Amino acid sequence: MGTVSVLGYTEEYRERQLAAQGQLQLTLEGATIPPVQAIQTIIQRIQLLQGNPNLEDDAGLQRILGQSS
Q: Which of the residues 11, 16, 49, 65 has an alpha carbon 20 to 30 A from that of 28?
C-alpha cells in the first residue's frame, strides 16, 4: 500500500483493524475479462518495471489489462 494522505492512511488502518478482527471481508470483482497474454509478456513487463518503476504508463497497462468498462 502506498498512502500519502491522512485520510488514506486512516482508511487503510481501519480496514486492517476490521480484517484482523474478522469483521471485514473484502471481495474484489471485475466486470471485464483481461485479454489473453503470454506469461512471458507479463513477466517481462514486471521485470522492466521492477528495474525502473518510472516507465509505468497508462498505455502499457491498458495493453495488458484491456479497456475497462
A: 49
